[in-house]
Amino acid sequence: MSKTCFVTGKKNMVVNSVTRRGKARAAGGVGRKVTGVSKAVQHANLHKKAVRVDGEVKVVWLSARAMRSLTAGKVKGMVLV
């Protein structure tokens, strides 16, 4: 089972971490220079929870946002156990 939210589809994101040096032009410098670009992973806020879907209990990954929606009753046919 992949680590993806069962309701919203949220998952980890790969992003670039950019390192810069120098003084900005607006501040009187010659501009910022990129000295390095490295990949980083931003992890989704996922938790394993039991959910009742159509009368059947499943253990799935849920994002914090999805748990709030389930608690408020905004997702039809699905209830936190």
Task: Write a structural description.
The longest helix is centred in the C-terminal third of the chain and has 9 residues. The protein has 1 helix and 5 strands, in the order E-E-E-E-H-E. The relative contact order is 0.26. The chain has one domain. It has a 3-stranded antiparallel β-sheet with strand order 4-3-5. The protein has a two-stranded antiparallel sheet with strand order 1-2. The mean pLDDT is about 95. It has about 80 residues and is mainly beta.
Topology:
Blueprint: E1 13-21, E2 33-42, E3 46-53, E4 56-63, H1 64-72, E5 78-80
List key phrases describing it.
about 80 residues; mainly beta; three-stranded antiparallel sheet; two-stranded antiparallel ribbon; 1 helix; 5 strands; about 10% helix
Offer a concise description of the structure.
This protein has one domain (13-80). The chain contains 1 helix and 5 strands.
